[in-house]
Amino acid sequence: VQLQASGGGLVQAGGSLRLSCAASASTFSGYAVGWFRQALGKEREFVGSISWVPDSTYYTDFAKGRFTISRDNARNTVYLQMDSLKSEDTAVYYCAVTDIWPSIRSSTYDYWGQGTQVTVSS
């Protein structure tokens, strides 16, 4: 099982980025997909997640109103649209899958992507 996170990069504060998480069809089928992030020297934290069917979403407080998760099941891809980025959003962002909905605990996620670096300059 492989997840491929991509789309990270360097952006100025106030800007936007869209991250993608691609996987094989069998990986996503029936699973919720979550996004986590880990800043240097800090613990990994939950960002938000999207269910398999229907497309329900759940966000942590810092993501509400700025981040949007969506999925394209035909492309086996989940997206994390990040707007109004702040310097404190700088982190490595990971996607992962779980059969528990909703779940903010990283220990409940079974498979993880390799992470993509997001750097927000102030």
List the helices and strands and how they pair.
Elements: E1 3-6, E2 9-12, E3 17-23, H1 25-28, E4 32-38, E5 45-50, E6 57-59, E7 67-72, E8 77-82, E9 91-98, E10 111-112, E11 116-121
Parallel strand pairs: 2-11
Antiparallel strand pairs: 1-3, 3-8, 4-5, 4-9, 5-6, 7-8, 9-10, 9-11
Taken in chain order, the helices and strands follow as EEEHEEEEEEEE
- Major sheet: 7 strands, mixed
The unreliable regions are: none
Estimate the mean pLDDT confidence.
94
Radius of gyration over C-alpha positions, nearest whole angstrom:
13 Å
Strand content: over 45%
Report on the structure:
The chain is mostly beta strands. 3% of the residues lie in helices and 48% in strands. The protein has one helix spanning 25-28; strands at 3-6, 9-12, 17-23, 32-38, 45-50, 57-59, 67-72, 77-82, 91-98, 111-112, 116-121. The longest helix is centred in the first third of the chain and has 4 residues, at 25-28. It is globular, with a radius of gyration of 13 Å.
Task: Supply database-style keywords.
1 helix, seven-stranded mixed beta sheet, 122 residues, four-stranded antiparallel beta sheet, mainly beta
Q: What's this, in brief?
A:
With 122 residues, the protein is mainly β. It has one helix and eleven strands, in the order βββαββββββββ. The longest helix is centred in the N-terminal third of the chain and has 4 residues, at 25-28.
